[in-house]
Amino acid sequence: MTWFLFAFATAFFESLRDVLNKYTLKNANEYAVALGLNGFSALFLLSLLPTAGIPIIGQQFWLALGFGASLNAIAYIIFIKAIKLSDLSKIAPLTTFTPLFLLITSPVLVGEFPNGKGLLGILLVVIGAYTLNIRQLHKGFFAPFQALWQDRGAKFVLGVAFLWSLTSNFDKIGVQNSSPIFWAFANYSAITVLIVPMALYQRNARSRQGWNFSRTSILIGLCNAIAVACQMNAMSLTLVAYTIAIKRTSAVFSVLFGHFLFKEKGLRERLVGAAIMVMGVVAIALS
């Protein structure tokens, strides 16, 4: 069960990372936060290389790195914007849609085929998403979905969830053609390089306020480095869907953090919705 411990640690530190992101975005530009997150992650992962070693790189490594880093650069910027726009307790559970999308992308990219239990998981994920806005039910049966879709942050995260369903498979390919730590370092280094020109363009086009890297940015990078190192190790030991399923329990942590730290409302329905969605993710993983 070593993979489970790695995956659960991923969930906790990823949630803590998003809490720090939300806190930092009060006074920082989202491009600066995205750049700091990925840049400091790469630096912390670099410090692990002497003990992890540099592996023999497989033929598919560079292909996975090119596609994975490009999609992740887009995904991280969109995700940071979503955290800035919406309640953390509302958007974090929506990342559980990633395993749902994995039912489509994993068979194509890495040949992992879940069985019929995945249908139950899909149903639970949808029910959980519905529960997030159950207070809107008095406006009509589809009102909770409409409320979700009208939230810009929620729409952004659904797009991010799909992108991460792709990048999770490229992570698997990258790990198989190198090693967990080396792949994580190479991936976040490449993402940082890709975000730099976008960040510089935004800095020149907008106000230069909110571009200073703080101690919080270093903590964000540290939490993300720990999370991704644990995730890559977990994926090297089990299926992508299993790892992502446990990782998405971070939604429950984020709902609790959002309520107690940022005073976000709707704890009951969001916690219930997140729990149902996580149950769906587990069902997909068990398939």
UniProtKB/TrEMBL annotation:
Q: Where in the cell is the protein located? A: Membrane
Q: Which domain of life is it from?
A: Bacteria
Q: What cellular-component terms does GO give this entry?
A: membrane
Q: What is its main location?
A: membrane
| Membrane topology field | Multi-pass membrane protein
Keywords per UniProt = Membrane, Transmembrane, Transmembrane helix
Where, by residue number, does the polypeptide cross the bilayer? Answer: 31-49, 61-79, 91-110, 116-132, 182-201, 213-234, 240-262, 269-286
Please state every residue range assigned to the domain named EamA.
2-133, 153-284
Q: Does the keyword Chaperone apply?
A: no
Family the entry assigns: Belongs to the EamA transporter family.
> What protein am I looking at?
EamA family transporter
Give the originating organism: Lusitaniella coriacea LEGE 07157
